[in-house]
Amino acid sequence: MKIVEKDIKILYFSFVVMLVSILVAKLFHTAVFLEGIMVILLLVCSVNRNTHTVIYFVMCTVFQNVILVLMSSGISSRETTTIIILKESLVYICAIVFFLKNKIYDFKLQEVLCVIFVIVSIFNLVRAQSINLGVTALRQITIIVTCYYFGCSLKNVKLEKIFSFIVLISVIVGIIGIGLFFLNDEQWIQMGYADYWNNKTGAVTKYSFTNFYTYDLGVRLKRLVSTFVDPLACSHFIGIGFLVVFIADNKNSYILKILITIFLLMGITKSSVVLIVSTILILNYSKINLRYLRYLFLITCIIFGLVAINILSIKVSSLSQSTSISNHFNAFIYGLTNATLLGNGLGTTGYNALIMGLENYDSNYNESFFALSIAQIGIVGVITIYGFLFICIKHNYKLYRITNNKYILVILILSIDLFLESFFSASSISMLGTGLYCVLNGISYSFYKEEVRRCELEL
């Protein structure tokens, strides 16, 4: 893996833009400079849709929150929202263009599921008690498909270049994260965290440092939040770098592996555990050549999974209330037992509904993306989105078996991790955290189509 000089120049340019944006916001109390640059880059990236479009998306994903914190005292809530929307607009525009240009007459099962999912989502958007809450919920619940088709829309993508850049940024994120790790809550407030929180939420609730710490190991431990200002999103991103250096890096850079492992462990998140377990399972599964043994392996994993869920359901009542493990599991079970066919409407549950004081609010769904989805778009919507994810996994596996490409294996593991984690974690699906996972799945599918076409031509 190697970073070319052009990528380093992009990195330098990005840091200059960030620095100038912070200075302008401090001096003139406006984010107009950053907004202007983002509009220009949005147009350029929407037209080009190449490897550097992904690199731009990565830079926005990684540095969005820390820039908004540092700029927070000089910009408004509207400007904060605009900057976030400008980044997401790249995803929406590219996904819509690709879908209209390439899929309007070429519907496969994946597109059928996507259309049904969108119809059910719009149906539940109309039923939303608050249009603002409904649109916010729609943005989260459609991340999987929008980011996927954004990835499909990209042309002439070089996976090695993208993953090399991600590893480089993972190291930068980790080093900055260690520096920020030693800041106390008061110093974060001085940096602008309280103003950032007010800008992001519209000052509806008081700022909170809850996610900066965890009690899952029985004691209060600080987590690596880094530039994401969010340990979960940070852990998800570093997880990509972790997989690349351990699976796809042939140079055996032990120092790099040790560094990224330390960064990942400092996040102290359940997503890290799921990622490591997924890696072990898929590496073992990929080595099995006989079909009946693969089926046996899958059945064994399912049985162990069901047994583990049963044991956890028995033990969950005795878990300490200061940990979140029981909350995540209970949310998953609550979603299963309170499912409706078409859902109760977008924005009718979740933390945004809690923050905005929605009436008839049920917080029991909050800790599981599966539960949040089944509450809002029902059984039909959940079947379509999880069917969509399963097809992504299937395509990645087939492509890896054909090409033996280690980068495709990384994407396969990320897709399995996303699938499993979403059952028990609401934060497993986010534009900052796992949006890039879905983008990479879309890129992988483009390679899959090319490989299938090549095989057909050879026949």
TrEMBL record:
Query: What are the entry keywords?
Result: Membrane, Transmembrane, Transmembrane helix
Does Membrane count among this protein's keywords?
yes
Name the chain's protein.
Lipid A core-O-antigen ligase and related enzymes
Entry's transmembrane regions: 12-42, 54-71, 83-101, 107-126, 133-151, 163-183, 228-248, 254-283, 295-314, 369-393, 405-423, 429-448
